[in-house]
Write a structure and sequence with these properties.
8 strands; 2 domains; globular; Chloramphenicol Acetyltransferase; two-stranded antiparallel sheet; six-stranded mixed beta sheet; 423 residues; 15% strand
């Protein structure tokens, strides 16, 4: 695509249009799963390479393999050399075969009762009714995005994760659970959330470091919060820290490595119908990760001094979904961290089924999530905030109150035994 006459600032927009057009030319049924477009900016300027791949063959982690390999191959070709890429440890085919075998094995089928216990009994719908695959489709979803103040974001992705010995995903999931419990108090006693993960678990010594494919997994977790403490958590009190600790532990309390639910639901003809009949999570959660923001990666908004092989545009990875696909949840919650010149930027997005939730109601949930994060940021700024949880000590059998007492003792603080309650 010739863009030699375009202003530097317009190149990313042109590339975005090219990407949308390339998506329309994908045809999985005919085996067309990837497209590439070269946006030629003319002599002396850095153009854009647009890569589009269907989700059937790629996930977010795969781009960290594909882009360096593409760069190495292109630079080798330009220098007249043969490209030599590092080998792939385990093929996606081998991984798929391994999953199918595990789904039928005794170790996985033995997880069924534990998954059914976690899923529990049917609960009242989160929205006006249950999801309907024919009525609640992607094109009926509404979306809204919120961005935290930079100071709060820096505290949450830095100080808070270090203090509570957890990841950004734990921080986000805990505050989301608190927000839903405050928004819908009837869910506080046990909210099912589908948590999306990278899915690249180390099964049977496989090496997936350089494997490209769609490994993404989803596991349901049951989260209980104490509704009476949620106002205090939003206000920045110690309840915010207790919320993180409790949800962190509950999110880890899944059978095995967490892959078993999908294996038994989709790849085992005996257990599949049983799990499909069990309650489903009304909320989905996906932390997309941390990326360099487009302007910082690309050398500035004018797109003039852009260096080769830097991400361009507002995001490093974009995507689109067939509008006719069924919605999978009443509410989907997503988040991403972008590193900017001013500091880390934390953005939250909610998507919801418009037939089942009023926009004002869904926005209230998003705003409550923001307040929960603000409360946690305020609490985490206290040097005394933080602490370990039982899952941090794999070789010891310690309750939360025992850990709290030990940490207080080593810090020289006075402590008093108490019964730990999930928040």
């Amino acid at each position: 695509m010739d863009a030699g006459d375009a202003a530097g600032a317009a190149l990313d927009e042109i590339a975005g249009r090219a990407a949308r057009a390339a998506v329309e030319r994908l045809d999985p049924a005919s085996g067309v799963l990837a497209r590439a477009v070269w946006v030629d900016a003319g002599p002396g300027r850095t153009g854009r390479v647009v890569l589009v791949a269907h989700h059937l063959v790629v996930d977010g982690v795969s781009w960290r393999v594909l882009v360096p390999d593409l760069r190495a191959a292109c630079e080798a070709a330009a220098a007249g050399r043969e490209a030599v890429l590092d080998p792939v440890g385990t093929s996606f085919r081998r991984w798929a075969e391994l999953l199918a075998a595990q789904a039928a094995g005794e170790a996985r089928t033995a997880e069924l009762d534990a998954w059914l216990t976690l899923l529990g009994k049917p609960r009242p719908p989160l929205g006006a009714a249950e999801l309907d695959r024919d009525l609640d489709t992607v094109d009926t979803l509404l979306h809204h995005t919120w961005t935290l103040p930079l100071e709060q974001a820096a505290t949450l992705v830095g100080r808070a994760t270090a203090a509570f010995h957890c990841g950004v995903d734990d921080i986000l999931l805990a505050t989301l659970a608190g927000a839903v419990g405050h928004w819908r108090p009837d869910t506080a006693a046990g909210l099912l959330v589908d948590v999306e993960g990278h899915g690249r678990e180390p099964l049977d010594g496989v090496d997936l470091l350089r494997t490209v494919g769609w490994f993404t997994s989803v596991r349901p977790v049951r989260l209980e919060v104490a509704a009476e403490h949620l106002d205090a958590a939003m206000a920045g009190g110690s309840a915010a820290g207790s919320l993180v600790k409790a949800v962190k532990e509950q999110a880890r309390a899944v059978p095995g490595d967490g892959l078993g639910h999908e294996l038994l639901r989709h790849l085992n003809p005996v257990t599949g119908p049983v799990l499909r009949a069990a309650p489903a999570a009304p909320i989905g959660f996906n932390y997309l990760g941390r990326f360099v923001a487009g302007a910082e990666a690309g050398g500035g908004a004018d797109a003039g001094p852009v260096g080769p092989w830097q991400p361009a545009g507002e995001t490093a990875i974009g995507g689109s979904v067939d509008p006719g696909m069924p919605a999978t949840h009443v509410v989907d919650a997503g988040a991403v961290v972008r590193d900017t010149a001013a500091g880390p930027e934390l953005t939250l997005t909610l998507s919801w089924a418009s037939r089942l939730l009023e926009e004002a109601d869904a926005r209230r949930l998003g705003e409550t999530w923001l307040k929960m994060l603000a409360g946690l940021a305020a609490h985490a700024a206290d040097p005394a905030a933080g602490g370990h949880t039982p899952s941090d000590f794999h070789l010891l059998d310690l309750a939360q109150h025992q850990i709290d007492e030990l940490e207080a003792g080593f810090s020289g603080e006075q402590s008093q035994p108490f019964r730990h309650q999930p928040l």
